[in-house]
Amino acid sequence: MAMTDLLSADDIKKAVGAFSAAESFNHKKFFELVGLKKKSKDEVQKVFHILDKDKSGFIEEDELKFVLKGFIEDGRDLSDKETKTLLAAGDKDGDGKIGVE
């Protein structure tokens, strides 16, 4: 399954483009722009599984660094600071990774 099977290619391009500058990534705004806020829980879980590159059932810090590339091939890498901020926002149990729930 491709990301564009779940989200609009135009929305993906606009969302990734909005955060093309280093240190500009805002996960809440990104997920809104890309259209995830309007998706069902099942659809969001499908996006999660696409981003879970190693299919471990979790998105770890090393996968988060490349999260924009999970949406569009030419997306930029997140900085270490952006990656840690995103991890902290999604890691609800403090285990250093984000689970599908």
From TrEMBL:
SUPFAM superfamilies, sorted: EF-hand
GO cellular component, one term: axon
Positions that bind Ca(2+) 1: D52, D54, S56, F58, E63
GO molecular function annotation: calcium ion binding
Keyword entries, A-Z: Calcium, Metal-binding, Repeat
One GO-annotated biological process of the protein: excitatory chemical synaptic transmission
Domain EF-hand: 39-74, 78-101
Binding site for Ca(2+) 2: D91, D93, D95, K97
Family (UniProt): Belongs to the parvalbumin family.
Protein name: Parvalbumin
Lineage: Eukaryota, Metazoa, Chordata, Craniata, Vertebrata
